[in-house]
């Protein structure tokens, strides 16, 4: 399959879904399909999806609402499909975070070309986003933004530096002195135990249970390491 790229196609018209699926598979993509919004969100939450082709008018949840829900969790490309030609409808889709708009009826070959172009652009521009444990924790280095369960987490500069050091060096053991030097090196009078305080505060913000952490683990007598599972 093409670089393990998973594409979710959402449309209640089976013939449209079937044709798009065939063309995408010919290009080497892995394809998931849904006929309504509820099913689409379940697949999105269960699978690692890299791009969504999303019909605007679905029988249960509108395409705009689905787009908004997903974009609030993670920034992945979404191409809207619609029979609506009203400019306000198109603009509203873009306001919800849509990356492109395709008006029905459309050329499937042109749609596939747009998929390729958007994925290429995201690969170049969005490679600063890391996510862990099925998007439980998301770090957007370009925006200096961290999300936990879809909600923005407010970190101090030192906490953010520490999280970056850990997340970019998963499983690597760091001593307190190493973390002190990398994250708070300019504070000459800082003592190594200040790291413990920063990590305690960081855990309270990114862990489900700070007393039983799954991201920042203590290696007793040695230091700390990051144990989050990075999403593919």
From TrEMBL:
DNA-binding region range list: 127-228
SMART domains the UniProt entry points to: REC, Trans_reg_C
Coiled-coil region list: none
Membrane spanning residue stretches: none
Modified residues (4-aspartylphosphate): 55
Record domain Response regulatory: where: 6-119
Keywords tagged on the record: DNA-binding, Phosphoprotein, Transcription, Transcription regulation
Keyword Zinc applies: no
PROSITE patterns according to UniProt: OMPR_PHOB, RESPONSE_REGULATORY
Annotated InterPro entries: CheY-like_superfamily, OmpR/PhoB-type_DNA-bd, Sig_transdc_resp-reg_C-effctor, Sig_transdc_resp-reg_receiver, WalR-like, WH-like_DNA-bd_sf
Domain OmpR/PhoB-type: 127-228
Function: May play the central regulatory role in sporulation. It may be an element of the effector pathway responsible for the activation of sporulation genes in response to nutritional stress. Spo0A may act in concert with spo0H (a sigma factor) to control the expression of some genes that are critical to the sporulation process.
Protein name (database record): Stage 0 sporulation protein A homolog
């Amino acid at each position: 399959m093409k670089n393990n790229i998973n594409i979710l196609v959402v449309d209640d018209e089976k013939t449209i879904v079937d044709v798009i699926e065939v063309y995408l598979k010919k290009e080497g993509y892995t394809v998931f399909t849904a006929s309504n919004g509820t099913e689409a969100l379940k697949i999105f939450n269960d699978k690692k999806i890299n791009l969504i082709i999303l019909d605007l008018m679905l029988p249960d949840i509108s395409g705009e609402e689905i787009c908004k829900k997903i974009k609030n969790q993670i920034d992945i490309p979404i191409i809207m499909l619609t029979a609506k030609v009203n400019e306000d409808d198109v603009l509203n889709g873009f306001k919800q975070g849509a990356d492109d708009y395709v008006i029905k009826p459309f050329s499937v070959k042109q749609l596939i070309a747009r998929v390729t172009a958007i994925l290429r652009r995201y690969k170049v521009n969005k490679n600063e986003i890391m996510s862990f444990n099925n998007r439980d924790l998301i770090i957007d280095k370009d925006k200096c933004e961290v999300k936990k369960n879809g909600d923005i987490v407010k970190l101090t500069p030192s906490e953010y530096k520490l999280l970056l050091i850990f997340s970019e060096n998963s499983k690597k053991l760091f001593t307190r002195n190493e973390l002190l030097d990398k994250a708070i090196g300019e504070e000459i009078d800082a003592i190594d135990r200040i790291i413990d305080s920063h990590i305690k505060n960081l855990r309270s913000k990114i862990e489900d249970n700070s007393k039983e952490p799954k991201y920042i683990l203590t290696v007793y007598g040695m230091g700390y390491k990051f144990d989050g599972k990075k999403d593919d």
